[in-house]
Amino acid sequence: MKKIFTLTEEDLKNIETIKRKYGLKTDVAAVRYALTDCAENMEVGNQEVQIVEEVASLLATEKIIQNSVRAVEKNTNVLLDVVNTILFNYKIDVCVPRDAIKSPVISTAEEKYKDNIAHKKQRKDYRVNK
What we know:
Layout: H1 9-22, H2 27-89, H3 104-129
Helix pairs in contact: 1-2
């Protein structure tokens, strides 16, 4: 296909520079090289944008996980302090492992926890599939 273009003096200087720098023999070869190089740079730029977006997403996820771990740690320490206080107040010095004899309260709490997790998963799946 043949096209006619009007180029400025600056454009012609750039074409000559490309020809000399890359050892190209014709103006057409220099223009093709410049177009190909430009297209490749745009593709690399798009890939770089995707990588930056992925890293930002990973960092956001890491921050959420860190905050969750801190909350769990805090709640665990508070509960341990509460249980320790109850043990001292009632002068309880016997340890009954949960695995040996499970209190009905513990069983109920575990069941409610499972139900709560299942409910949250259903709501999340519903939002995703909506």
